[in-house]
Amino acid sequence: MDLTYFQTFREVAYHQSFTKAASELGYAQSSVTMQIQKLEQSYGVKLFERSGKSLRLTSAGEELLKIAVQMLNLYQQSKETLTLQGGGTLTIGTIDSLASYFLPAHIQHLRQKYPTLTIRLQPDRETAIVEKVKEGEYDIGLLLESKPSDLSLEWVNIREEPLVVLASPSHPLSRLETITLDDLSDQEWIMTEASCNYRIMLERVLQERKIPYRVGLELGNPEAIKRCLIAGSGIALLPRMAAQEEIGRGELSALPFTHPDIRLDLQMVIRPKKWMSHSLQDFIQLLHE
Q1: Cα 193 to chain center, whole Å?
Q2: CA geometry: angle at 242 spanning 241 and 244, to 5°?
Q3: CA 279 to CA 77: how far, in whole Å?
Q4: Residue 36's closest CA among 65, 59, 70?
Q5: What are the pLDDT digits (tens) for 184-233?
Q6: Could you read off the pLDDT of 59-68 as tens digits, one per residue?
Q7: Residue 283 CB: number of other CB atoms within 10 A?
Q8: Residue ranges of E strands in 85-181
Q9: What whole-number distance in Å separates Cα of residue 2 and Cα of residue 120?
């Protein structure tokens, strides 16, 4: 049984309210209800009963609360011990481009300071990252977003991350000094997957301005997109960090195009009041440097 369920049980017992416990923990009330139901199913007893408008523990619930408090205290002590030793596990949910081009140097720096720390880097979809941070499966999430998608979580803006339209240096658009939306008319795009937030922003702008375009290829990997651009025709929108090396070597051109509605920020998302290990605190500090 997940210890998170016992923490939820303790908060419901303390507040005598599912609603107040959900607010304190940063969960949806349905998540609190589900966790208590699973505990009850596991033990085969009712843990709470209603008396009028109030909620109180059953006799079985009172006994479990005594044990749960001891378990959670021991767990907290174990985390503090591992933190001092630099051990434990840090689970980071993020998207492919950040996992490939932004995080490796930060992770290696953290590993040097905490050699016994296990770091799990989990590339995932944006919506899945937010949900798994909310449920406690990920310690922290790193995303490229234009605005927070779930205000029950804590969001920290790290920096603006430029998006660039890329093409081969031989592409006709590479010869222009300035590119407007009209110059993108009827261009063939190599797009990321349909759920990608910056593709969604790009297509929204093109459609609102009635700029015709064609999707020649749809690829889920930034490396594959870059290789196709270098080898052939088409243009693509990617975070600048993903193509910085190819731009520097002259293999790709960053076209002189910007639009106020096609921009992203590197954002950190974390559960409010989350317990912070020393390694997690240091990792967050690294992100701001």
Answers
A1: 17
A2: 60
A3: 16
A4: 65
A5: 999 999 999 888 889 999 999 999 999 999 999 999 888 999 999 998 88
A6: 999 999 989 9
A7: 25
A8: 89-94, 118-123, 140-145, 154-161, 163-167
A9: 19
